[in-house]
Amino acid sequence: MLPHADSEQPLQAEPHRGTAPRVAAVGGGTGLPNVLRGLRPVLFADAAAPRERLVAIVATSDDGGSSGRLRAEFNVIPPGDIRNCLAALSDNHAQIADLFQYRFGGGDGLNGHAIGNLVLTALADVTNDFAQAVEIASRVIGARGVVLPATSELVTLVAEFTDGRVLSGETAIASARGRIERLSLLPDRPRCSPQVIDALRSADVIVVGPGSLFTSILPPLLVPAVTEAIHVSKGIRILVANLMTEPGETDNFSILDHLLTIERHASWQLFDYVIYNTMPVPDALADAYRARGAVPLVTGTFELNALERLGIRAIGVPLVSEHPAGKIRHHPECLASAITAISQGKLGAWRTRSELGGM
Question: What is the pTM of this model?
Answer without folding.
Answer: 0.91
